[in-house]
Specification:
This protein is an alpha/beta fold. It is 31% helix and 18% strand. α14 links the parallel β19 (540-543) and β20 (574-580). The longest helix is centred in the first third of the chain and has 25 residues, at 141-165. The structure holds flavin-adenine dinucleotide.
């Protein structure tokens, strides 16, 4: 619903983890101060907007998920615009600006946004503003903040153009818009920091000029080095541009009555959850290995849970119990942890379209809320810091929090918050006079996400069982965070299975072993492409160093079973390239040679990056180096025999492997590098070069 005086634009977002939505809300929030009104909708709400008839400018914020896919909430929209029967002038009436979110750690950076952008262009839509592609790897705000800053002027120009097109005089531009245009120009022309008179209803100025306060926190003002709690000139002496204070919109009520917590499955919108017993835990690495890898086996016999080798699934995990208790203590709520919390939208809130976040139950105990619903480890966004300023009583701490969310303090934010992976608890320790309310936490902390894992077994080989392999993620202490931590999910799983762990029992055979009563909740996350070829006679190459080997264990188990069951079938050649640091410490599945012995695996090539060698010619360290040694065979499998090439593991390795493949194709085909890259692109398109990449 839009106000008559303000110019409307359509704002669509498609979010997977809530970031695109939060950015859209920020745009919506700022729009008022610019004399504009955002008509905001999730892209999936296709009954609420109609691009076919849209006259006003459209702003799209869209993230990327999986291997370059648009978020689930954009699927229907993308399918609709990808309809090949649409004529090339279908959207010529449309002018739009698009902000794509992605992570350059993953292949197909920002592909969700790029896909929509490309298709809208193909259908004749016009950009009124350059596309922004923000990278979560270095900090979304690096692109998002200036993109939003520039959006207002671009929108205003778009409105003027639109009016001109409609043949109306500029006098018809609403007065608030002309005023806003004036402000926009001032903002662009003047480099001086100035106080702006903003529209009524905007609770904080965009530009804050305040009397500077001395900061006497942990460090003295004479210290030259900035830190999380201490700033130095020029930041410490600047007038600050800080974001507008986000309006409060959540209200909580505590009830001293016992009540049932909701079932975990009610928190999951992505699919059906199953509570399954952990039947086995094996430590695959030796005690002296740099990383600890565990294999867990789950009993899925009684769950209607189906999977194929190559699929992933998600584990619903809680926050660390000590961290939850610490948070309760700092918030002064320890005595209320078993109280029921009723969460409602605050009456009369200024936040447009405010609703209770989907991941927050209407009623649950305080402990449940902090344990299962909120990602308390999330790196606080600038809007959260801005809100925390209001709950901080110490003037010095207040000023530092303002700096950290200000434009002037952008590099301090990146260095001391984002890159240091500081979380709410770290901030509350560093700024002890900051006492936020529970409702503020609900407003600003994102959903605690379930973690994905690749299946490392075959349902044919071990019916009713599902295995997966993971490294326990360790975050050592650092100046901003004096306590070491473990990954939320992997740390929790490691603790959960500690009683049934087989120390250093490096085994593929997960039959038998100890059983436990521990259960975890999981749900499916099928992979559409990372599967064995339908035709078993097709040759395949698998590259999976470290825990990247996980899905290939499933592939090999599956193949072994098929070979046993179908002795008359023809099976293609199979190659596995595996690598780890030390042969005797973290060679996760030494029993791979069983697959070699029984003929399931034709070639096993391994390398060890940290073992010293006495050989005259040093052996290759990394899988990509080993692949180069088998250039002729790789080219034969891929080009002559139309085989499949699978890569699983981290992005850095995957890039190294694709570079090696490009070099191999170029050498073996006597083609230049560009030509080889095109061939690799075709292989990707044919789904014969497949990656499952996670960091
Ligand atoms: P988290 O607590 O989520 O921390 C992990 C990340 O948070 C770090 O990588 C880092 O970016 C950041 N971080 C948080 N705090 C800090 C800090 N203080 N210092 C530095 N960085 C910090 N993993 C496997 O091991 N095996 C698999 O088979 C597997 N398959 C996957 C399949 C898919 C499709 C996807 C998307 C991911 C897969 N992963 C796999 C990764 C897995 O989902 C988790 O991300 C991983 O296990 C870490 O989860 P966690 O909760 O323990 O760590």
């Amino acid at each position: 619903m839009c106000c008559d005086l303000k110019r409307r634009f359509l704002l669509l977002y498609a979010t997977q983890k809530g970031q695109a939505k939060a950015i859209a809300e920020e745009i919506c929030q700022q729009a008022g101060a610019h004399g504009l009104e955002a008509d905001m909708h999730c892209m999936s709400e296709m009954d609420k907007y109609n691009l076919e008839t849209e006259k006003d400018p459209v702003v799209i914020v869209i993230s990327t998920t999986g291997t370059g896919d648009p978020p689930d909430t954009a699927r229907k929209f993308v399918k609709k615009i990808q309809d090949t029967t649409l004529p090339p002038d279908h959207f010529t009436h449309l002018q739009y600006g698009l902000l794509g979110l992605g992570d350059s750690e993953y292949t197909f950076f920002c592909n969700g946004g790029k896909t929509v952008d490309r298709r809208l262009q193909d259908l004749g839509a016009q950009h009124f503003y350059d596309t922004g592609l923000a990278d979560d790897c270095v900090g979304l705000e690096i692109v998002v903040d200036p993109w939003i800053d520039g959006l207002w002027l671009a929108l205003k120009k778009a409105f003027i153009l639109q009016k001109e097109k409609e043949g109306m005089s500029s006098n018809a531009v609403p007065s608030t818009l002309s005023a806003a245009l004036h402000i926009g120009n001032e903002l662009n022309l003047s480099s001086e920091v100035q106080n702006l008179k903003l529209e009524d209803g905007v609770r904080s100025s965009v530009v804050l000029t305040q009397k500077l306060v001395d900061i006497h926190l942990e460090a003295s003002t004479t210290d030259a080095e900035p830190s999380l709690v201490h700033s130095v000139p020029p930041v410490s002496q600047s007038a600050l541009n800080i974001p507008a204070l986000p309006p409060e919109y959540i209200e909580v009520q505590f009830q001293d009555t016992h009540g049932e917590n909701p079932h975990l499955s009610s928190l999951i919108s992505e699919g059906t959850t199953f509570e399954v017993p952990v039947t086995k835990a094996v430590q695959l690495t030796r005690e002296d290995a740099i990383k600890t890898a565990l294999l867990l086996e789950l009993d899925i016999a009684d769950a209607a849970f189906d999977y194929q080798p190559g699929d992933a699934f998600c584990v619903v995990c809680p926050n660390n119990v000590n961290e939850v208790e610490e948070l309760l203590q700092i918030l002064g709520l320890s005595d209320k942890e078993e109280y029921l919390v009723c969460v409602k939208v605050k009456q009369g809130t200024k936040k447009k379209g405010a609703t209770r976040p989907q991941h927050i139950p209407e009623r649950s105990t305080l402990k449940f809320l902090l344990t299962w619903c909120l990602e308390i480890r999330a790196v606080p966004k600038k809007a959260f810091l801005r809100a925390l300023v209001e709950c901080t009583s110490d003037a010095g701490e207040k000023r530092r929090l303002q700096e950290l969310c200000s434009r002037q303090g952008a590099s301090d934010y990146t260095r001391f918050i984002r890159d240091s992976n500081v979380c709410l608890l770290d901030l509350l320790h560093a700024f002890p006079s900051c006492k936020p309310s529970l409702s503020l936490l609900i407003e600003h902390l994102p959903k605690l996400q379930a973690r994905s894992y690749s299946v490392s077994s075959s349902n044919l080989y071990q019916p009713g069982r599902l295995c997966f392999v993971f490294n326990i993620v360790e975050f050592p202490a650092c100046p901003a965070r004096p306590v070491p931590r473990k990954g939320v999910c992997t740390g929790w799983l490691a603790e959960l299975v500690a009683p049934l762990l087989h120390p250093s029992k490096n085994t593929l055979d997960t039959k038998g072993g100890s059983s436990s009563t521990e259960k975890i909740s999981i749900f499916a996350r099928p992979n559409n492409t990372f599967h064995l070829p339908a035709d078993p006679s097709v040759p395949l190459i698998m590259v999976g160093p470290g825990t990247g080997i996980s899905p290939f264990i499933g592939f090999l188990q599956h193949r072994q079973k098929l070979r046993e069951e179908h002795t008359d079938w023809k099976f293609g050649e199979t190659w596995l390239f595996f690598g780890c640091r030390h042969q005797d410490r973290d060679y996760l599945f030494k029993q791979l040679k069983c697959f070699l012995e029984n003929g399931t695996l034709t070639h096993l090539k391994v390398c060890f990056s940290r073992d010293s060698s006495t050989a005259e010619v040093a052996p290759p360290k990394y899988v990509q180096d080993v692949i180069r040694l088998y250039a002729t065979e790789v080219a034969r499998v891929l080009l002559k025999e139309r085989g499949y090439f699978y890569v699983c593991g981290d992005k850095h390795m995957a890039d190294g492997v694709s570079n090696a493949v490009v070099d191999i194709l170029s050498m073996e085909m006597e083609a230049d590098k560009l030509e080889a890259m095109k061939i690799l692109a075709v292989l990707r398109e044919e789904k014969r070069y497949l990656q499952d990449v996670w960091s």
